[in-house]
Design a protein that fits this description.
The structure holds three protein chains of three kinds. By secondary structure, chain A is of the alpha/beta class. Chain A has nine helices and eight strands. Chain A has an eight-stranded mixed beta sheet, sandwiched between helices. In chain A, helix 1 packs across helix 6 and helix 3 packs across helix 4. The longest helix of chain A has 16 residues. Chain B has one domain: Pyruvate-ferredoxin Oxidoreductase, domain 3 (3-Layer(aba) Sandwich). Chain B contains six helices and six strands, in the order E-H-E-E-E-H-E-E-H-H-H-H. Chain B has a six-stranded mixed beta sheet, sandwiched between helices. In chain B, strand 4, helix 2 and strand 5 form a beta-alpha-beta unit. In chain B, helix 1 crosses helix 4, helix 4 packs across helix 6 and helix 5 packs antiparallel against helix 6. Chain C has 13 helices and 17 strands. Chain C is globular. Classes of the chains: A alpha/beta, B alpha/beta, C alpha/beta. At the B-C interface, helix 1 and strand 2 of B face strand 1, strand 8 and helix 10 of C.
Chain lengths: 280, 177, 378
């Protein structure tokens, strides 16, 4: 056994900030690792990558990466990232935040950024509840499942995020779980090259909250549940892939959308060029 | 010198443009001028109003303390503003659109602005005719400043508008001191 | 660069604010249409692409405020324009700008309130909101233009203050100043002092993101190799979040002191006939023009009254108000609200302070202020 002094990713993480705040069995470490692997493989200079997040457990992730990282207000990572990307279109701006942040409080910004085909990569770690505040339910909580604020079971339907993103016109849409780190890494690397709005949903366990409320013994058990319940199907009909694992439904994963559509930055640059041409 | 001017018309008549032209010409003349605008709450078809204060000195209080001149392109403009006028106030109207009661005839200058603008083949220029009339009557700004303001605002239609202005100026001058 | 050519213009306040911002180097605008500031957004949409800037109409004011902070951290001077309801929505992210020390400018054109209020008519009800609007302790800087010329000039100063003190800076204008048309004199660009942003690029050894012992530390720009963390959580000088009360104290006192220690440099005011005055009107924004008229009329009656006009509402011109209080002993504060700035005048002046309330909706009638002056001398 060889002993290493450094973490294998020591150049890309802020070692001095470890141990991190996440619970045992949380999937966010895997997501961080997958993102950094994708970044290395992409060949994009790491200083050109900027991470932006909102508030919540996932939103802490950028702070552990040794990149320029912006931990903003709850739900507002996407508009903050939008401003930054427009200010400097050469940046690779990635938003990594949770389902509550991106789709409950921040849902309006998501739909508009996707509609604009804004040149951002948005990675949503979906753990089906608000982890940081103690496991209350949100817009992604599966039907009938329990949470700190749905003690009798959730009566609300939940978002089908890939279907939503696709309907809005996103250029790239995928869904994985943290039990699929290789596919997830490849997917993030692919999305980094996409012109326009790229969206990846990553299912991730939340052992002390969603897991506990719904009968999972620990994080691994919850991960296993997603793994055995999931199937990769790139050509899935998106309207059918809502997440409802407690009623026997399979969790469908894959790279669902890869489409070419003019991105916001492309259109803005075209407009500026036309204006310059007109002045000549 | 300090005069208060109210301009009033219905949406689309170009009353605010007229007020701006007067303001721009006054600035060209090196005088101080201030304008406040007000509109009826309707998006289209309602009234528009502009109050101008023109002075040799900087103006602090942004509301006119008296209306020395009322320029109106609509009957409503005469009816609703009459109570704000004093006995010396002058009224400038578009002749075919406003009927001035006999009691006010002496203070009124009725300009056939629409007719003139049509004759000069610039049917949208009735407001510029009134600008000329205002200038000719009041001499608040010079003819040259008026023409410079027109040239800046309508760089593609200078001649058509300057001729409206000049014709209006002559009309106004007839009633001036 | 397609800037507004020098010269004299017959222009309105919204035109002036837009052009002032562009002259100050603003190259990013994010906003949401709202009366009475929409003309700023509209003019920005046509002007920014001409000068190599970026314009985006956002989905709401929350997103607008977030976007201008993102743009500023991306290296571009940015601003937004709004009015009361939109300003309320921006408050949380204004706090983000404060804690992350991000320079940007928010132009708030006050109208009648509360809630939707009277969208098309003037008010001065956001004065305290620019002071205490966002939660937590703040040391805001707020300019208050009273003319088209100041709408232009103070927009430039606001950008300079934002860059110098690294925080969102407010211009609390109002519906009348926004829509008032009067003379605007624009000088040649080299006659203006424009604060260019200093930045730190590649991190040298143990460089920290923040420096709490230094009022002025250049920011780093995203993507230039600094690898810094910028956080909405209370953070130490490295930029890392902390739960420690001692870190909160250190950070917060730095945020407050960088403004408080420099109040003398920031505070601007204008005085009119205060030398021999036995009574002083404290009046700002559009109301000050009515107040000045009232002073002139009162002087004709032989009443020794003067006017103090804060051009920066915040930081409060504490030192000067205390001096005036010792001399004159009496203040009148007319406002288009039911008493806001008057509270601070009373607090700092420790003198008799009368209020004259004007409901939102119109330029204050100077005769009402004059009557209050006469009452004071009766």
């Amino acid at each position: 056994m060889t002993e290493t002094e450094f973490h294998p990713k020591h150049e890309l993480i802020r070692e001095e900030r470890f141990p991190h705040v996440w619970c045992p069995g949380c999937g966010l470490g895997i997501l961080l690792q997958s993102y950094l692997n994708a970044l290395e493989k992409s060949g994009i200079p790491s200083e050109n990558n900027v991470l932006v997040s909102g508030i919540g457990c996932t939103a802490r992730l950028p702070g552990y990466a040794n990149l320029d990282s912006y931990h903003t207000t709850h739900g507002r990572a996407i508009p903050f990232a939008t401003g930054m990307k427009l200010a400097n279109p050469n940046l690779n701006v990635t938003v990594i935040s949770g389902d509550g942040d991106l789709f409950n409080i921040g849902g309006n910004h998501f739909i508009h950024a996707a509609r604009r085909n804004m040149d951002l990569l948005v990675i949503c770690s979906n753990n089906f509840n608000y982890g940081m505040t103690g496991g209350q339910h949100g817009s992604t909580t599966p039907p009938t499942s329990k949470s700190a604020s749905t003690p009798y079971g959730n009566i609300e339907p939940s978002f089908n995020l890939p279907y939503l993103a696709s309907a809005l016109g996103a250029s790239y849409v995928a869904r994985w779980t943290v039990m699929h780190p290789r596919q997830l890494t490849r997917s993030i690397k692919t999305a980094m090259d996409v012109k326009g709005f790229a969206f990846i949903e990553v299912l991730s366990p939340c052992p002390p909250n969603f897991g506990k409320f719904n009968g999972f013994g620990d994080g691994f058990e919850e991960m296993e549940f997603y793994r055995t319940k999931s199937v990769v199907q790139n050509d899935a009909k998106l309207e059918d892939i809502s997440i409802d694992p407690f009623h026997g439904k399979q969790v469908v994963l894959g790279e669902f959308v890869k489409r070419k559509r003019p991105s916001y930055i492309m259109l803005e640059q075209e407009l500026t060029a036309k204006l310059k041409e007109g002045r000549k | 010198m300090k005069v208060g001017v109210r301009m009033y018309g219905m949406g689309g008549q170009g009353i605010i443009t007229l007020a701006k032209l007067v303001g721009e010409a006054t600035v060209e003349d090196g005088k101080y001028v201030m304008m406040t605008e007000e509109y009826s709450p309707y998006i289209t078809g309602g009234w528009s109003k502009a109050d101008l204060i023109i002075s040799d000195e900087a103006v602090d209080y942004p509301l006119p303390e008296e209306i020395n001149y009322l320029v109106t392109l609509s009957q409503e403009g005469l009816d609703v503003n009459i109570s704000d006028l004093n006995t010396k106030s002058k009224i400038i109207t578009e002749r075919s659109l406003v009927s001035v009661p006999d009691s006010l005839k002496r203070e009124s200058v009725e300009i056939p602005a629409i007719e003139i603008s049509k004759e000069l083949k610039n049917p949208k220029g009735a407001n510029v005719v009134l600008m000329g009339a205002f200038s000719g009557l009041t001499r608040v700004f010079s003819e040259e400043s008026g023409e410079r303001a027109i040239a800046k605002r309508f760089p593609k239609y200078i001649d058509a508008n300057v001729s409206c202005f000049e014709k209006g100026y002559e009309e106004g001058k007839k009633h001036g001191r | 660069m397609n800037l507004l050519p020098p010269g004299r213009y017959f222009a309105d306040g919204n035109f002036a604010a837009t052009e002032g911002a562009i002259l100050a180097g603003c190259r990013f605008f994010a906003g949401y249409p709202i009366t009475p500031s929409s003309e700023v957004l509209e003019r920005m949409s046509s002007r920014l692409p001409e000068v190599g800037g970026h314009f985006i109409e956002m989905e709401d004011e929350i997103g607008s405020m977030a976007a201008i902070l993102g743009a500023s951290n991306g290296g571009v001077k940015s601003m937004t324009a709004t009015s009361g309801p939109g300003f309320s929505l921006m408050q949380e992210n204004i706090g983000l700008g404060m804690i992350t020390e991000t320079p940007t400018v928010v132009l708030d054109e006050m109208r009648g309130g509360p809630s939707t209020g009277i969208p098309t008519r003037v008010g001065q009800g956001d004065v305290m909101q620019t002071r205490w609007g966002s939660h937590g302790d703040l040391a805001p800087i707020t300019y208050s233009p009273n003319s088209v010329q100041e709408a232009f000039d103070l927009q430039i100063e606001a950008f300079n203050a934002a860059e110098t003190y690294r925080q969102p800076v407010f211009v609390a204008s109002d519906q009348v100043v926004g829509h008032l048309t009067e003379m605007l004199e624009v000088k040649k660009i080299d006659e203006y002092d424009i604060v260019q942003r200093e930045t730190r690029k590649v991190r040298n050894g143990s460089d920290r993101v923040f420096d709490y012992s230094n009022d002025f530390i250049p920011m780093f720009i995203a993507g230039t190799g600094f690898r810094g963390n910028v956080d909405s959580l209370t953070h130490d000088e490295k930029g890392y979040p902390s739960n420690e009360a001692s870190v909160e104290k250190e950070m917060l006192e730095h945020l407050l002191n960088k403004v408080r220690k420099n109040e003398e440099k920031i505070v601007k005011y204008e005085e009119f006939l205060v030398e021999d005055a036995k009574l002083i009107l404290v009046s700002y924004g559009i109301t000050s023009r009515s107040a000045k008229q009232a002073v002139k009329e009162a002087r004709k009656e032989g009443l020794k009254v003067g006017m103090f006009r804060p051009i920066t509402l915040w930081p409060f011109p504490e030192k000067r108000i205390k001096e005036l209080a010792e001399r004159s002993k009496k203040f009148i504060v007319p406002e288009i609200n039911y008493g806001q700035y008057s509270h601070s005048v009373r607090e700092y002046g420790q003198s008799e302070t009368r209020e004259v309330h004007f409901p939102p909706g119109a330029v204050p009638d100077y005769k009402i202020i004059l009557k209050e002056i006469e009452r004071c001398f009766a």
